[in-house]
Amino acid sequence: MKKITPRILSGFMELLPEEQLIFDRMKQMIAEIYESFGFVALDTPVLELSEILLAKAGGETEKQIYRFTKGDTDMCMRFDLTVPLSRYVAQHQNELSFPFRRYQISKSYRGERPQRGRFREFYQADIDIVGSETLSVLYDAEIPSIIYKVLTKLGLKRFHIRMNNRKLLKGFYEHIGLNEQSAEILRIIDKMDKIGEDNVRMCLFDLGLKADSISQVLNFARIQGTIESVLKQLTDLNIDNACYQTGLEELKTVTGALNDMGVPETNFMIDLRITRGLDYYTGTVYETFADDFPSWGSICSGGRYDNLAGYYTDRKLPGVGMSIGLTRFFDVLKAQGLLNTGSKTPACVLVIPMTPAEAGTALRIGNVLRQEGIKTEVYSAQTKFKNKMVYANKVAVSYVVIIGETEKAENTAVLKNMKSGEQQTVAQDKLAPSIRLLQKLEPTLPIIKDC
Amino acid sequence: MKKITPRILSGFMELLPEEQLIFDRMKQMIAEIYESFGFVALDTPVLELSEILLAKAGGETEKQIYRFTKGDTDMCMRFDLTVPLSRYVAQHQNELSFPFRRYQISKSYRGERPQRGRFREFYQADIDIVGSETLSVLYDAEIPSIIYKVLTKLGLKRFHIRMNNRKLLKGFYEHIGLNEQSAEILRIIDKMDKIGEDNVRMCLFDLGLKADSISQVLNFARIQGTIESVLKQLTDLNIDNACYQTGLEELKTVTGALNDMGVPETNFMIDLRITRGLDYYTGTVYETFADDFPSWGSICSGGRYDNLAGYYTDRKLPGVGMSIGLTRFFDVLKAQGLLNTGSKTPACVLVIPMTPAEAGTALRIGNVLRQEGIKTEVYSAQTKFKNKMVYANKVAVSYVVIIGETEKAENTAVLKNMKSGEQQTVAQDKLAPSIRLLQKLEPTLPIIKDC
Which of B114, B109, B48, B43 lies closest to B75, judged by CA? Predict the structure, then answer.
């Protein structure tokens, strides 16, 4: 029979067991943190009606969408998790309790041109808190406190959550008479890190700003220091503009609450150059950068928006949220060798019967160890003992339990630590505590190598 | 602005928080059991090249597939998890260790006509053990021992895993001279439970079988009793056919190993009427039925196959596996009111500040409780205290921690058990142990109500 070459579509990420295990650990860990804050997981369909998904989309995004018809139904694969959330909340608004807190860690689809770090199927790990009519600004602080928990738990130490407030910016531009250009200015300032201050100056000039307006804009963007110092500088500007003052109050509340939630100032700062280009955001905005790896770009970004689901409902649904581009982040960590990969099996123990005569004993031991909460594989393939150990080494299991004729007769087993090579003979009914003891001596490494 | 009515495609399942929480608990529990046996999770792409996915498909399945082109690429959404597995193993055969053990709990897609219990997007929870060239029959016993663990842990008590062996059947039909019609006979016998013995008799007659052949086939299918008794009856038939004897040996080995793995005979039996219609299976086959709910059909089915990936590689890859149709099973349990649903939030505790003056304290307490491993939501919305308690009731959180002026001043909190209504004043630094004590008194209910 002619064989078809097994392969996947380009631009899709598929992992081998060793990588898959650490990816799943990362996904699981993030889910647990989200749940520890009381977010409920949603699992919306991958396919939605085109009319629904494309209510807002346009331009580049729309071109990239996987859209097709089946029968007479025009449908799309989702391209993000925000549009499905807005559809869900609008659809089920009378069955949900507000503030509604949801997370979703799922794949979305965009037929982008394949390039390094761009995937056509990609996981995002989103959280949003959606209020009905109003939503306290204190929730704006909860989101970065979760970012802090996630990155710290992943093993990242040197990173900064950079915060800003769009009302503060809008008020400032109004105050210096640049109200009309403010959207354009925001987009330009947002590129500061990428294109540098000189280019920003030129762009602002091209926009028609006068020299002193440009200086004012840049001087404002340059304000920095500790949280206390930045807040003081912003206060001392004495800007008599309601929008500015609201933004400043919000910044004070959010940074104060971050302190209450135990986020150290070594991991967050006010950065007046962060604007988040999207029109969508209306208040607090955040981006997060690893100190030592600026090339990664922002790991998690998000912010406050005024209205989640205006296309589907008249009810005003303000919210705040953020997203981690998980597939992209994982790909970067993998490419830079920063993942603490290890075993190729989730099992902690491999039980090996020397010959078929010990197969039953091996199965019984496997069963007992699992009941004791120890993940255990039994090697039942009939082959030479040497091959069995080759398998154990290849899958990089931590411990091997060997049962030969003697061990079977004496109700014992040989317990071997595969890392150290040490082995000991243990009574079969003492295997579980012996393994737990060995496990305690080997601390679990964080997902990301020290950085 | 004209609003678009928010809705999803028909034939898709979407859950509200209360249902989603229990669905995810079920999914998570199954994943944990699979991992406890050393299966590694795979996460293959939802989209694959049509050439790959349709190598085998045909007939009904092919008509149901979501297939489309983008650019000049002809692609499909996967319609099961087996074809992607075979592609994966063939593609990565030199990087994998055999026996290769994988599980995948993911969605597949079929554009079936919508009807009760049929979904166009559905979860399957698959496990397979794939050998290179050979695979010990002992692995055939591991699969039903996992089915046993899963269903027991879900809370189902009265169920039977029904096993048979295709070699035994094939040998028997050879022996009575019905070799050529054996595939047809298998398909007919497989329907016994659905259509009844009389109709089976008629179908066999239509197939051209003579009266005594029909009697022989039916007498064989009727053999039942304890494992020991069935094996004895099968042995006593003294059938001199190699294929039959191999099948009988395999049944003996598998049932013996099931015993080693602690599966009680109250949950498994040999049923010679189980054949699994698919040509795919070549040895052990299983189906699983709830004793009290025959209308559910088989909850998990599977078996042994000779060659996983013949379309993609010359390497022989025999395997054994099974699949749980999770979306369908969940839908049945939900429809019959058999799910122990409870809370609408994953949080165990809701911290409520009486007024904005206690907001900071509430955030600090939330942070501490989370550090102690207690899932905690802080209610930061600014509204009347009464509304805060309405929210707590609506999301059905177990415990509420209330901080008022007095509690803040005295570093205490009111801890309220929402189920019993009892409340106590507790020092803030004693909240975590107090909550853990209350948790201990409330045992976790299984996912499925007693049945």
Answer: B48
Query: Smallest Cβ distance to A99: which of B49, B96, B381?
Result: B381
Q: 10-residue block means of pLDDT along chain B (451 residues)?
A: 92 97 97 98 97 82 90 94 97 97 98 85 98 97 97 95 95 93 87 88 93 94 95 97 98 96 96 83 95 91 94 96 96 95 96 97 97 97 95 97 98 97 97 96 89 69
**Residue B328 CB neighbours (<10 A):** 19
Which architecture, in CATH terms, is A17-335? 2-Layer Sandwich (3.30)
ipTM surpassing 0.85: yes
Stated pTM of the model = 0.96
Q: Which two tokens stand for residue B207?
A: 């197939």
CA distance A219 to A221: 5
Rounded distance, CA B9 to CA B7, Å? 7
CATH 3.40.50.800 residue ranges for chain B: 349-440
Chain A hits for B28, CB-CB cut-off 8 Å, are none
Contact A47 B95 (CB under 8 A): no
Residue whose structure tokens are 């997060």: A288
Chain B residues closer than 8 Å to A378 by CB: 142
Q: Is the sign of the CA dihedral B37, B43, B44, B47 positive or negative?
A: positive
**Is the Cβ of A66 closer than 8 Å to some Cβ of chain B?**
yes
Nearest to B14 among A44, A345, A370 (CB): A44
What is the predicted pLDDT for the residue at A199?
Answer: 93
Cα–Cα distance for residue pair A195/A187, rounded to 1 Å? 12
Q: Which of A42, A314, A361 lies nearest to residue B20, judging by beta carbons?
A: A42
Q: CB neighbours of A8 closer than 8 A, spacing ≥ 6?
A: A14, B44, B45, B48, B49, B87, B91
The CA radius of gyration of chain B, in Å to the nearest whole number, is: 27
CATH class of the A349-440 domain in this structure = alpha beta
Is any Cβ of chain B less than 8 angstroms from the Cβ of A45? yes
Would you say residue A237 has pLDDT above 70? yes
Considering only the beta carbons, identify the residue of B21, B120, B370 that sits closest to A40. Answer: B21
**What are A92-101's pLDDT values in tens digits?**
999 999 999 9
- Give the integer Cα–Cα distance in Å for B44 and A314: 40
- Min Cα–Cα distance to chain A from B177, Å: 31
Q: For CATH 3.30.930.10, list the domain ranges present in chain B.
A: 17-335
Chain B hits for A45, CB-CB cut-off 8 Å, are: 8-9, 12-14, 121
* DSSP, res B44: -
Question: B25 vs chain A: nearest CA distance in angstroms?
Answer: 11
How far A347 CA sits from the closest chain B CA (Å)?
Answer: 4
Q: Does the beta-carbon distance from B134 to A381 stay under 8 Å?
A: yes
Q: Which of A245-254, A435-444, B23-32, B241-250 has the lowest mean pLDDT?
A: A435-444
pLDDT of residue B204: 93
Write phi, then psi, for B341 (nearest 5 degrees). Answer: -70, 160
In DSSP terms, B413 is beta-bridged to: B426
3-class secondary-structure state, position A108: strand
- At A355-402, the pLDDT tens digits run 999 999 999 999 999 999 999 999 999 999 999 999 999 999 999 999
The encoded tokens of residue A289 equal 């950068």
The two structure tokens encoding residue A178 = 């640049």
Which pLDDT belongs to residue A278?
67
Contacts across the A-B interface (CB distance below 8 Å)? 274
B75/A contact by beta carbon, under 8 A: yes
pLDDT for residue A18: 97
In 3D space, the residue among A320, A321, A316 whose CA is nearest the CA of residue A132 turns out to be A316
| Average predicted confidence (pLDDT) for chain A | 94
CB of B394 less than 8 A from some CB of A:
yes
- For residue A187, what pLDDT is reported? 86
Could you tell me the two tokens for A382?
Answer: 């009939």
Contact B352/A at CB under 8 A: no
